[in-house]
Design brief:
heterodimer, A: 271 residues, alpha/beta, Elongation Factor Tu (Ef-tu), domain 3, Rossmann fold, 6 helices, globular, B: 154 residues, alpha+beta, four-stranded antiparallel sheet, 4 helices, 8 strands
Chain lengths: 271, 154
Amino acid sequence: MLPAPYRIEKLHHETVDTFTIEIARANGNGVFSFLPGQFNMLYVFGVGEVPISISSDPRNARTFQHTTRVVGSVTKSMGSLKRGDVIGVRGPFGTHWPVEEAEGRDVVVVTGGIGLAPLRPALYHLMAQREKFHKIVLLYGARTPEDILYRRELERWRSKFDLEIQVTVDRGTRDWRGNVGVVTTMIGRAPFDPTNTVALACGPEVMMRFAVLEFQRRGVPSERIYLSMERNMKCAIGFCGHCQYGPAFICKDGPVFRFDRIEPIFGKAEI
Amino acid sequence: MVQTLEGIVGQHPFFKGMEDRHIQLIAGCAKNVRFDEGEIIFREGDPADQFYFIREGLWGVEWMIPHRGFTTLQTVGEGEVLGWSWLLAPYRWRFGARTLQPTRALAFDGKCLRGKCEEDHDLGYEMLKRFTNVVTERLEATRLQLLDLYGAPS
């Protein structure tokens, strides 16, 4: 699979260490479709290639966005690109959030840090078809108030849509009047019907372990809990084995997994 | 329909499975309270003679840190329990608490309940089991906070 050239249309710094790039086909006439939760391999020429989830609205077929944190040489180079620069794109790859299965049910989204980015397309989808879902609850945890991703968008969603959004931070600041504490503690008191809920979680694996425990404590069955897993992905098509996760490859069998299918290996240190 | 204190206490998940006679004893030490936004509920070092069930609103558990001012370490909201210092000598608050939103709560007289727990060790054991769960949940949450999970990997 050869990377296709995509041109950077916008680069926006979300927080001190995260940014969003908006890209479109370099030849200008391509359309692009993806499902919420899928990822692309982004190639900064001469530096390297990294897997990054797509974070934009799936209804927009002309441009799409990726939000990432600066963690290594590729993302560091990517963060310093300018409008008009070209990168290589392979994808989209992987499984998607079960937005169809969630129809007619409550949907609870639990996420922390940069984990909100892969869930953003699912949230766009849920809001675009709001009438198909019962309650929609977003529980989001960030390190500090300054680290809250898509802050303006969250405020707009909260005021415009019938959507329960609860944000918490690990460390409050003097002017922060909201929740302080880990996001998983909000699951216990969140307004949803556990017998008719689909739960979506994305974030650090330890966070997801506690999220699963809280969902199970509330009575959400394992087959209606979905997690986005992360491992070191290289080829993205299940050949290289870098992202092997027990019998599965994260790149092609994931990243979104139904929890009951990975329950026996989830949280095992050896896997 | 006006709910009795006994009814409110008995329906709270914290007391699920508790015997009626114990619910009656506990409700006998309870009263309804309301606070406006920004009110100080208790200060670090004050006698810890009460604990609270928050029925509505949000409270911040805080510490006064020199040069930083009052710093919220954790928030506690609807359906949650706040305060276990009333159970443990020297019965003084280790933290302060302040309302971040207008709040309705049940306040329990810890001194009264301590006396009842001393007289009826079954009640004391039930209370300790339940508060141990709360302490464990807070400890787990604190450990997660300490991990600084959302920061960039070093």
